[in-house]
Amino acid sequence: MFDIRLQGDTRAMLRRIRYFSEIDRRSINAALAEVVRDSTLERFRQGKEPEGRRWKTSIRAANEGGRTLIQSAQLRNSIHARSDASGFAVGTNVKHAATHQFGEPGRTIRARRKKALRFRINGHWISKKQVHIQIPARPFLGLSDEDMQEIKGTVEDFIARED
User: In the prediction, which pLDDT does 162 show?
Assistant: First the structure.
């Protein structure tokens, strides 16, 4: 058991404690979710992972002059944020997102609907029944040091507001 004794005028301190207990957690989590979502979308614009390293250029982007992880923009456009009073999450439900986030050290792709897979390598068309591929990790989800500073600033802004 603890006993705490406060002397002097404690009204201001008690008001501040009451204010903290009444902070709109739903709103602060919604704001934090948008901060992290915006940061994630910025990674797609810059082609960088949360730690700031550039993604390894994909073969498709190198051959076609496009951008890595943005062929149709499906993955980028699928980044959504959810929040409630208990917390927030930023992510995607796109099936191939985990492959790009974590990489794939070795996967075999087989032709299913046709006799062979057909693709172009160095200007030549090739047909194969199956191919073994390796996909490097290109993390797009996560929190950078800058994200953490932005989160801290957002929380401080919410705390600094007066009723």
Answer: 53
